[in-house]
Amino acid sequence: MIRLILNVLWLVFGSGIIFAIGYAIAGLICFLLVVTIPFGVAAFRLANYSLWPFGRTLVTDAGAGVPSGLANVLWVVLIGWWLALAHIVTAVLQFITIIGIPFGIANLKLVPVAFWPLGRRVVPIS
């Protein structure tokens, strides 16, 4: 029940809806450019996870190999560090208030996946 409440508050007061819309738009652009479809898949995974982060986590996919790692390097150089920085800045701003602390923690959970998204999958926390 607490996770549901935190997720709803995250959508309304946190930065969940804003980041999800941004990731979804980036995913659509990546799908239009055909060559960047793997990045589009990663962007949609980030959009999904940023909508509902409480009660879920990201794990490394065992099937991810060298192509995924090389694509991640390209992702980091082009946009990964910008996305990670945006999550860090948003988290710091949310840590200013007591109510924003859980949302800041959720933003910090999104930093590693925003920086290195390919080869990961979202799983529920048991």
TrEMBL record:
The chain crosses the membrane at residues 12-44, 64-85, 92-116. GO terms for cellular component: plasma membrane. InterPro entries: Inner_membrane_protein, UCP028777, YccF. It comes from the Bacteria. Residues 5-56, 70-120 form the Inner membrane component domain. Keywords: Membrane, Transmembrane, Transmembrane helix. It holds the Pfam family YccF. This is YccF domain-containing protein. It comes from Natronosporangium hydrolyticum.
